[in-house]
Amino acid sequence: MKEKIFLVLANLFWAGNYIFGKYVIAEISPLWLTFIRWLVALLFLLPISYFLERPRYGEIIKQFWLPLIISGVLGIIGYNLLLYGALEYTSPMNAAIVNSLNPAIIVILSFFLLKERITFVNAAGFIISLVGVLFILTNGHLQWIFQTSYNRGDLMMLLAGVVWALYSIIGKKLAVPPITATACSVFFSILLLFPFLFLQPLPLAELSEEGWIGIIYICLFPSVFSFLFWNMSVKKVGPSYAGIYLNLIAVFTAMITFLLGGDISASQLIGGAFVLIGVYLATNVRNTEASAAKEVKS
């Protein structure tokens, strides 16, 4: 029962990342938000990884420095810059629904890159999910698929999904405990991001109260608590079962949007249903359990 509560909370906090990210990104750049988020998170991830996994950081970095850097560039820098950049142009609801396609993308890329088995049901699920995303992108008018001008933010979220899938595939082959691997990747990412910070100002004096609350939330809840709750639960219930709960991110995002007085369109509801059904079919295979475990919404 405790693990189920942890899984619900983890996905609730990840959903909040879309909502608060939309507010914060109006006041600071995606670059600064990504840097601040993971700098603060690293201060918590390092001691957590030390006490839970007892890693030898020096040996791990010496042996796995290249895949850890690549993981950081993809999962920490690339994914987050695309996510927060997308929120400048699209709604949190759209971003969360398009992001729900990620597990299916992992299955498809694993088939091509890792030669993992894929069934007809998996392929059909991916197609159904893709139709759901296209339904949202065209605002319910699939006949406009080759004629419409797509929202830049939605397209950025699609690209973010591919980036996250590549990050997840690398993580599957990385023989490093998950929290330690994340902490090391974050460390390298912060070093890589730092020189670019001088290209953009950080208007701390102009940040609103809502902006500060959003930054604090993003630094702690989706970055630290969600990841900790997720890994604690996966150890108990397994990645396949835990992966089912990832669909709650879009559900919670819709609920929070509604409670805050936002609008939810029919195309979002219908398209979202297609995505969730398709993802379930696409990931419902025994040898892709590890893929589901990697689907953490940074």
Summarize the structure.
Residues 5-138, 152-282 form the EamA domain. The protein is mainly α and 298 residues long.
Distance between the termini: 25 Å
Instruction: List segments where confidence is low: pLDDT < 50 over at least 5 consecutive residues.
Output: 286-297
Tell me the count of domains: 1
- How many helix segments? 13
Specify the helix fraction band: over 70%
Structural class comes to mainly alpha
User: Beta-strand percentage?
Assistant: under 5%
Q: Given the C-alpha coordinates, what overall shape results?
A: globular
Topology, number of strands: 0
Radius of gyration: 18 Å
Average residue pLDDT: 88
Helix and strand string, N-terminal first?
HHHHHHHHHHHHH
Oligomerization status of the protein chains: single chain
**How is the main sheet built?**
none
Descriptive overview:
The chain is mostly helical and 298 residues long. It has one domain (2-293). The chain has helices at 2-24, 30-53, 57-86, 92-99, 102-113, 120-137, 152-172, 178-193, 209-237, 239-244, 248-259, 266-283, 289-293. Helix 5 runs parallel beside helix 12. Residues 5-138, 152-282 form the EamA domain. It is found in: Cell membrane.
